[in-house]
Amino acid sequence: MNAILKNKKGVTLVELLAVIIIMGIIAAIAVPAITGLINRQKMNAAEASYDLIVEVAINYAQSESDNSVTIAELVTAGYLEANPFTNDADLAISGSTVTFTVVGDYLIGDGVWVSEAGVATTTDPL
Fold it and tell me: Residue 88 in contact with residue 94, Cβ under 8 Å?
């Protein structure tokens, strides 16, 4: 009888449940960590895009000897590429303050997109 039992190979239900529980615990730990990492990377990309838009606006304003510049002017001058679906954005430079408001998406050179859901206004001192 022992010879017959020794030849049986397989996984018991208890072993299978243990593996499923361990995988569930690992997933419960990993998913929030990965989600947080993705959100931090999106925030870093948005901040970098914002900084680039401010830099482009300052360069344009200095080259044109103008202390006020809008997104439309940057698009017309070729500094920014407008999104074909929406063009709702504004940029204002007043003294040492840059205010950037955008609704929709904008492509800055080299494939960098700035995307905002709704209206976001940020003021950054120069």
Answer: no
